[in-house]
Write a structure and sequence with these properties.
about 140 residues, 4-stranded antiparallel β-sheet
Length: about 140
């Protein structure tokens, strides 16, 4: 199946246009992490941006390594028996986006590939930028 839009994933569709976030304040961020035994957490698997309007923007990676951006509420954590567990909680200060709580989102920028869909989402604040992208199926958060 051929994508209809530049940022549309052939498997998952286009998701939402994140430009609706412009002008909103970032109030909180929740994330999900995979824990296995005593190993350190991996991830995040999912990130939920909660803005000043109460809207929730879900950012995650797709099975084909695209970056999915959609509106959906956070899910609960769950146990996967011997495969570990997934926990959902507010992010902590080790993540670059935490430095921007309460700030206004000034702009958003998508990066995409015509065959793979959205690969990155960058949010610009007064004090800097945060990039969400996918690399080998893993989501990464970085600051610029």
């Amino acid at each position: 199946m051929e994508p209809k839009q530049w940022n549309e994933c052939p498997v998952h569709g286009a998701g939402v246009r994140p430009d609706y976030l412009v002008g909103r304040h970032l109030e909180r961020v929740l994330a999900s992490w995979h824990f296995y035994g005593t190993e350190p957490r991996t991830g995040p698997l999912d990130v939920w941006l909660i803005d000043s309007e109460g809207d929730v923007t879900h950012v995650t990676t797709g099975s084909d390594w695209c970056l999915i951006v959609e509106t959906s509420a956070p899910h609960e954590g769950y146990d996967m028996a011997e495969a570990g567990r997934v926990e959902v909680a507010p992010i902590d200060s080790e993540f670059p986006i935490a430095a921007h709580f309460g700030e206004t989102i000034l702009s958003v920028h998508d990066e995409a590939d015509p065959g793979a869909g959205r690969l990155a989402l960058e949010l610009t604040f007064d004090s800097g930028r945060v990039r969400c992208d996918t690399w080998s199926g893993d989501m990464r958060l970085s600051s610029k």
